[in-house]
Amino acid sequence: MKRKTKRLWIILGSMASFAIAIVLILSAFSSNLVYFKAPSQLINHPTVKGTTIRLGGMVLANSLHYSHKDQTPTAQFQVTDGQAAIEVHYTGILPDLFREGQSVIAIGTLDKNNIFTASEVLAKHDETYMPKEVADALRKSGKWDPKYGPPPDAATWDHMTQPK
Amino acid sequence: MTNTSSSPPSQSSFNIHRFANPRTFLRFASKIQSWVTISAIIFLVIGVIWGLCFSPADWQQGDSVRIMYIHVPMAILASGGYFALAACALCSLIWKHPLADLAAGEIGPIGAVITALCLITGSLWGKPMWGTWWVWDARLTSVLVLFFLYLGHITLLHAFDNQQKGYKAAAILALVGVFDLPIIKFSVNWWHTLHQPSTFSIIHAPAMSLSMIWPLIFCFMGFALGFIALVCMQLRAAILERQVRHFLLNE
């Protein structure tokens, strides 16, 4: 075997075994690599009460209310993944993108009444980028309301916004 | 290359073997250099002006979406640059190609700057949109790892008195680090992350209005050609420097 061929096989072999090692490590730590947990995961696999968790999901339509305590507004809303919903209370400034139908991540603790008290709320925007006119046209077509979730598939935009 | 004829025969054959390809590269690179540079500038000027001034604002992100025209090309080039670095490492380790070592040495610092810009623009975008500068989710963390891989490559390359040892160590690191690239790409699909999944895919229509895709393509072409132009320029200088050292200092 030529030395170059030998080197090629040594490198390919070590890279393959290294790849297997990485796959094993990543799959072993997979549960620690998720940044947030969905409401149904939290309800089905409850963690110790009082530990800080990150809860992720969509703000349920028509669930957002504000309550005033000592002049500071507290936002109350439900976060859902379609299977379960958890009530979240948050006192503070919400990010600009926060609205009903938006995906958010709340960082805080879950109490024994299954009410999540957030110390921080992050907005998670989806991968869709469109100008205001397209969004308005989609809304006018009546087939999409931002309150109920992310916009429809981009391939459908054209025939959805065309006048009938 | 008039000097080759004046050096001893053994030296001369060594030279031809060792620098044959760099010589072809030099000739080729000097021919395309100005074309690549000029088209990079044209694409960049059109793309940046189009993206920053004329493309529509996003329906929910507003004008902040324009950071995308810098952030997305930087993110793609950070990974692409590292892929090129790993390809050079493979050529260097298996075929001991001297040009590959020099190219890896030039791609490294430029790639590190691009990755830093990707992280900085991402952070500037994250604050107004997500509400935070930084989170330790899988996407952001794996890109930070990529930045440190670039830095490690640069450091290793210059860590040895024997330059060949440095090239070898850096090449091994570059190959080991290449596994970070699929992790970056698929992190948003494999795990829940704050970063949104990819807008572009092979099987679906891009989830982006065409009026935003075109300026983005121009910006990407501009930055990509600019990256190639910079590497070409640096690599030509590195080859010439190496030749000069060889002839004047016998290194």
Structure, briefly:
Chain A has three domains: 1-33; 34-124, Nucleic acid-binding proteins (OB fold (Dihydrolipoamide Acetyltransferase, E2P)); 132-161, no CATH class. Helix content of chain A is 30%, strand content 28%.
Description:
The complex is a heterodimer of chains A (164) and B (251). With 164 residues, chain A is α+β, with helices and mostly antiparallel strands. Chain A is 30% helix and 28% strand. The termini of chain A are far apart. Chain B has one domain (3-198, 207-249): Up-down Bundle (Four Helix Bundle (Hemerythrin (Met), subunit A)), CATH 1.20.120. Chain B contains 8 helices and no strands. Residues 1-19 of chain B have low confidence and may be disordered. Chains A and B meet through helix 1, strand 6 and helix 4 of A and helix 3 of B.
Short descriptors:
heterodimer; A: 164 residues; alpha+beta; OB fold (Dihydrolipoamide Acetyltransferase, E2P); five-stranded mixed barrel; 5 helices; 6 strands; B: 251 residues; mainly alpha; Four Helix Bundle (Hemerythrin (Met), subunit A); 8 helices; 78% helix; 0% strand; globular; disordered N terminus
